[in-house]
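Q: For a teaching session next week I want to show students how multiple molecules come together into a single three-dimensional assembly. I've collected the sequence lines for a complex. Could you give me the predicted structure tokens for the whole thing so I can convert them for display?
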Amino acid sequence: MAGVGELLEGKRVCICAGSGGVGKTTSSAAIAAGMAARGKKVAVLTIDPARRLADSLGLPELGNEERQVDPKVFEDAGIDTQGGELWAMMLDAKATFDELVRRHAPDAETRDRILSNRIYQQLSNALAGSQEYMAMEKLFELHAEDRYDLLVLDTPPSRNALDFLEAPKRLMQFIEGRALQVFMKPTGLGMKVFGRGTSMMFSVLRRLTGVEVLEDLSEFFQAFSGMVGGFRERAKRVNELLANRETCFLVVCAPQGEPITEAVYFHRKLVEAKMPFGGVIVNKVHYESELPDHDPEQLRSELTTALNDEDLTQRVISNYENYRALAARDRKNIKRLTAEMRARLVIQVPYLDTDVHDLAGLMRINDYLFAAGARERTEIAAEA
Amino acid sequence: MPDLLDKRLVIVTGKGGVGKSTVALAMGLAAAAEGRRTIVCEVSSQEHTSHVFNRAEVGFHEVEMAENLWAISIDPDQAMREYLLLQLKVRAMRDLLFKSKIFGYMAAATPGLRELVTIGKIWEVALPDRKVKKARKYDLVIVDAPATGHGVAFLQTPRTFANVARVGPIKAQAEALETFLVNHRKTGVAIVALPEEMPVNETASLEHTLTEDVGVSVDRVYMNALYPERFSKDEAERLEAVSSNGNGALRAACRAALSETRRAAAQREQLARLAELVTAPVRTLPFVFEPELGVGEIHELSEAID
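A: Of course. Below is the structure for the complete assembly, covering every listed component.
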């Protein structure tokens, strides 16, 4: 196994997961471009497209619909895609949720009641997990339409990188939960099922919250009740897609202690959840191989001779020591990560000197992701 | 208008991974060093502060970390419980709610309720006259807030509730929170950014949303982890020449210096863009060349906070 190309061979879905600020969006774009360059028809679903990158790909106004990157962009970069295509879209949780309501609502009246309900309006934007769930939903929809060889999903930056795995389940619990049943029949059967305490509880709640909140909630839950069946079926199928053998999870992280700890945790959770885990991408690594060990006195004298400048020599040396300390940290952290991975791929992408903002930049990253001639950058963990 | 650290509540927010927790703690240390009784509130149970100080997790308790510095990790379930204890004076009523499974389901299902009680607790901690009996009074409360997307929704929660609940105690409560958050004399916001393109863009749009839509006062933007400019253009050219002729560590050291020069320059471009794009004053915090950030490093950062 050499790189992402082999890993994604025959896969239909690639999910890039990880905490915020680790370069997930760039990795997703690079993977999608790399697979398109290998002749696949690929769509990348992103949360927040890097604007300069999107501009350079000719996609300044990305929305909730996929748009194709002009094949000429590849041609201009000297890449023959052999019929491969790159499409991109920006995930819009609110728009996706609205679409879903339109699809599942039994009639126009219910649809309008939900869309104009204030609780829904708050929910579709702010409910923990709703953005994550909607990403899954869009992924499922595109997969069902079967227009692409591969879908690459850049997951939302959750406080907890696992939120999206839980999202379908959580949404289901929410809409079919017992709270819903109570609200559907606040004075009837629900009360009887839950006993006399319930009506007293409601009277306490009314005093606490005011009648209006309860009414809005009640209306919201009632409007949603007709859609429970459709949602339940859908959430089940989304979960099946995630666990499918044609799906591949990649964990994206950075080499500092905290992101590595999160990646280790995330890997464990994916394995526990029986999700098809593919490997880890570590971005912004300081390679130790490029910062070789040295005799400090010898380096100082060589620099002094070459530069003839004591002060500059000192600054070059302290900069070098700083970099070496970071490289040592990265190696230590990646070793810890690799020990966890059980024969899975750990790909290290170096800390590049410049931001990636065009196709050429993505391809530079792909030299590492797809490991063409960079085998030493790729560690394969020993079977534990 | 009072200076940021002279306010009672400071909310630290920004894109994921920019170092919000570190900046919140550095700010806490800076305020504590000036003699302010300061507490750092975490809202996502990361226990960042207790980890940095190598202490047992603090949980839903106000624990002293250093002189004048306390920390608490606000758990919404516990905040909800405390709120009900304070609100419902009749014991039987409280027991009824706490024991009710349906109440549990509902509390979990109601959108935004967890955020509302979390902000409620932050507000309570910041009150000069605290509701919790015998509770400590603070001069400054610093919130390590959720990342951008969740952060905006988080801060908007009180208004949403105030709008939905037209009458009743929740409305009064939500309005009090809202009034406190948008009081520019009492509550300030600091956004943390990184010197890269996307974090800069996001910071600009976050400042706009927070100012225009949420109505809070964004008082400062921190450009975090800025590389030093160690080498001049002229020196870089000399290093370039040496690196192309040398080998081994000599070449590697020159290349590392050139690499840093390029990064530092690219970062200065982003710093200039940030200053152009945002209204609030921009402060810079240096990149810390240490493998991990401990108390010592954050102390150093705290000296550049104000």
